[in-house]
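Exercise 3.2. Students should predict the tertiary structure of the chain below and write it as structure tokens, then compare their answer with the key that follows.

Predict this chain's 3D structure.
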Amino acid sequence: MSHSIHSIDTAVDQSLPHYQKLSLAIHDTPEVSNYEFFASETLAKQLQQEGFTVALDVAGHRTGFDARYKSGKPGPVIAFLAEYDALPGIGHACGHNLFGITSSLAAVALKTVIDDIGGEIRVYGTPGEEGGENGSAKGSFVREGFFKDVDAALCVHPGYHHGLTGPSLANDPVDVEFFGRAAHAAGAPEKGINALDAVIQVYNSVNALRQHLTDDVRIHGVITHGGDVANVVPDHASSRFYLRAATRTTLNDVYQKFENIVKGASLATGASYKFGLFQNSVDNTITTPLFDAVYLKHLREYGQDITQEINKGSGSTDVGNVSQVIPTIQPHISISDTYIAGHSIEFKAAARSQKGLDSIALGAKILAHTAYDLIRDPELLQQIKQQHAENVRLQNGETHD
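Answer key:
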């Protein structure tokens, strides 16, 4: 085992300068969902050079990839999740230039020992975690069966503190459009059907609904089109909403209530409507504490420790979709000694700082050793799977009266 530990750490240290340069190049070339051509090609090309078999344009995502290395011995299949999209306008203010690189280097380091211990390594390049055009790709990877034969998935996300995997909210991103009839607003208003009125009714009805929802539910949106000129009855109006809840079960109920509101606004105004998801739905994260405990053990071996308690979860991530089907962890790794808010200029700067670049080595080593433990200890992996299955059952059986 000591030889394997040495091999993993040596591989990370030797490759680190090159991977840091790749991380900076991705940071300097920020790309949003469905347009991460440079980032996906950079990571895929590197993994191919490292001996992985790589398929591009997978799961319905032109900037997605599937990289695999299979040893000659039977064993578990471990998937490292790679993100590399940036935020519109601000760039890599969520640190995904570090995220995808760290997962890739972890896989490369584990490859140095996989032929001895058996199993298969995969790196899934999953676009659009921040949402956007054809966003939240992990939902597609789950739906298309990419995790059916995977035993566990892992990744680490840049942050201010070191932290373990926490819960996240399920999220259904929806578009609402109404189609009415244009007419002169003063001369012949009776001939018009006001699509904007329908959108406003949806807003008002959502506000009335809030008092009858559980505390974990969040509904927030914007009007994306409300008409063109004030003297013409708007014949088209649209809005975009995020519907969130702590569990998929609750959110499915909220979705139905919201759709009924849309139908009611249509009936009240006479406008026809179009309603539905504009990208993949996102599921809540199922945590598996036994899995995180393995990560924490190795974090401490490198002289680090958790500096932030697990929060209740107020955002959403498509890592949740993966966690619904297999044990999955996404701890946070510190890239700043001072507070940085997510999606901020300060976070963007930290993502290319020396501490940010150093986190690639720490994260890759810990992820690789965590995966190594799961492969080498079948009993541990089975316990993690059992705990995960029980937590999925408890969450999905949850109801709110």
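Discussion points: Residues 224 and 239 are 5 Å apart (CA to CA). The chain has a mean pLDDT of 96.
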